[in-house]
Amino acid sequence: MMPIDHFFRAASLWPERTAIEAEIKPALKPQGGDGGAIFRLNYAELAHRVNALAAAFQAIDPEPQSRVGICAYNSVEHLVAWLATFAADKVWVPLNPRNGKDELNRIIGVTEPTIAVIDGDCLDKIDPGDATTVLGKPVAGGFDGPGLWDLIDLHDGEAPVRHDLAPDDLQAIKFTGGSSGVPKGVMQTYRVWNTCIASMVASFEFDADDRHLLAAPMTHGANTLIMPIFAKGGVQLFMGKSNPVAIMDAIERMRATSLFVPPTVIYMMMADESFESRDFSSLRHFIAGGAAMRPDAVAKAMPMLNNALETCYGQTEAPQIAICMRAADWLDPRYQTSTGVATTLTRVACMSPDGEVLAPGETGEIVLKGDLVMKGYYKMPDKTAETIIDGWLHTGDIGVIDERGYIFIKDRIRDVVVTGGFNVYPNDVEAVLGQHPAVKECVVFGLPDDKWGEAVHAAVEVHTGGITGGSVGEQEIIEFVKSRLDSVKAPKRVHIVDELPRSPVGKVLRREAKTLFAET
Fold first, then answer.
1. Which of 76, 321, 479, 492 is the most buried if burial means most Cβ atoms within 10 Å?
2. pLDDT at residue 173 in the model
């Protein structure tokens, strides 16, 4: 069974059930949907269009396992192209339009897609090379090439050829964010995707009543919820503009039950003056991922978010769901610094530098083993050998596992600050900084120091307006941390900034902050 079969099985079981609701209507050809302010497609209608586009992709390039790059924002067109790529037995290469043109073109050059689906407002962001360009979501103005809906119209009623592919053939090549060097193309197999889907369904217990709001980019964590929710007959919700306030509006308006966002979006939501008066009663799975949530934010946000706040941990190399924390466990104050427990199909351990699996309570590198682990890095066998050793994926994260199996992730190995001979984990300091009422978001890092070897530094964004009732100074924040942590862990400097450096998906970038303040 291939990942796309979860969708097609749902279309067979529940053809009349709504599969998509969108506030921005696609430019359908032939026309479809039920009209009105919200555009809807049922499973049968969506499957019909996916089959037609998959047949079109095979008409352009009949070879299985060739690459399809998709450079698009969240939209119905993006979803149809994504599903059609899988139905055509091709390999998905996500191209986040928020990334720089040089990075996108490098990915194109490495993966050599034969088809590139590009939104009309992304055409100037990327050079598709020799790929046949298919226009995704159209914009005003001409385009000299086939449009997605035109291809669906042309191949209406057709279905793609299905090939006899193996579980270790590729479903996707997804590029890491490059926080530890040059971005690497992670080879995710059919086995990896099926493991992710099964683990998601088992861990979060999705069902037919789930309404998944695509708030984060489909090129990143949000896509991992799509197929599990399709597998159970749920609905994918497409909103308009995505920002923290718009996400809150959409949750209320569209009665979303499930969504995935990075913690930074939750912090911005919490900072909005309307947050506490919002109606979040529809929420069942408000999943934070991509970085650790501060425990103070977990405790504060949980009752506001209908006690639905959850988290999961993975990497592009082992997508999304190696570890999971359900809301019921996160309500326990003992576990608000934990990321959860290992999911059913993945083994998680802490390992010493010499490769010994450590006992509960001992700190070491988090390592993963199982079918969720990638095949390797595309065209980078040396990097693969450095990362997967004796079947264990080395994550580069430091953590500890307690006697019950709860996993507490401290930091990235290279982010540990060694000051005066002591190891300081930035996440520990950030957890305390976040308790200060003036601090909106923060990041901690080490900088060279003549006395200490490294000194602990922090950069913070502070609340504006009437939320904190006044300004805050560097020394006040330092003393606040000293009153709650060993003084060796307190920042020697606090840099108060208007905005912290962030990735294209909103994640605060520790190393960029470190570089910025190393130069001041």
1. 321
2. 98
H/E stretch holding 377: strand 376-377
CB-based burial of residue 253 (10 Å sphere; 0-12 exposed, 13-18 middle, 19+ buried)? middle
Task: Tell me how far apart the alpha carbons of residues 331 and 385 are, in angstroms, rounded to a whole number.
Answer: 40
Q: At what angle do helices 474-482 and 426-433 cross, to 10 degrees?
A: 110
Q: Nearest to residue 176, comparing CAs of 323, 321, 315, 366?
A: 315
Instruction: State how far the Cα of 340 lies from the Cα of 40, in Å rounded to an integer.
Output: 36
pTM of the model: 0.86
Dihedral sign, Cα of residue 427, residue 324, residue 286, residue 198? positive
If you write DSSP's letter for every residue of 443-505 in order, what string do you get? EEEEEEETTTEEEEEEEEEE--TTSSSS---HHHHHHHHHTTS-GGGS-SEEEEESS--B-TT
Element (H, E) at 13: helix 3-13
180 pLDDT more than 50:
no
User: In Å, how far from its chain's centre is CA 70?
Assistant: 16
Asked whether the beta carbons of 83 and 36 are under 8 A apart, the reply is no
**Alpha-carbon distance 20 to 22, whole Å?**
6
CA neighbor of 263 nearest in space, from 299, 296, 297 = 297
Q: What is the pLDDT of residue 179?
A: 42
In whole angstroms, what is the distance from residue 249 CA to residue 253 CA? 6
Q: Which domains does the chain have, with CATH numbers?
A: 3-165 (3.40.50.980), 197-412 (3.40.50.12780), 416-518 (3.30.300.30)
Q: Token pair of 97, please?
A: 């339009």
SS3 of 423, please?
strand
> What is the pLDDT averaged over residues 244-252?
96
Instruction: Determine contact, residues 279/249, Cβ cutoff 8 Å.
Output: no
Q: What is the mean pLDDT of residues 216-221?
A: 90
Half-sphere exposure of 338 (CA within 13 A, CB side): 23
Strands 493-497 and 453-462: parallel
Q: Which residue type is seen at 391?
A: G
127 Ramachandran zone, left/alpha/beta (phi>0; psi -120 to 50): beta
